[in-house]
Amino acid sequence: MNFDRNKATRIWTTACRIPKGRVSSYGFIADLAGLPGRARMVGKVLHYAPEEMCVPWQRIVKSNGQIAFAAGSKSAQLQSSLLHDDGVIVFNNRVSLKRYFWKPDFAELMAMEY
DNA sequence: GTATTGACTTCAT
DNA sequence: AATGAAGCCAATA
Question: For burial by CB atoms within 10 Å, which of A19, A29, A39, A79 has the most?
Answer without folding.
Answer: A29
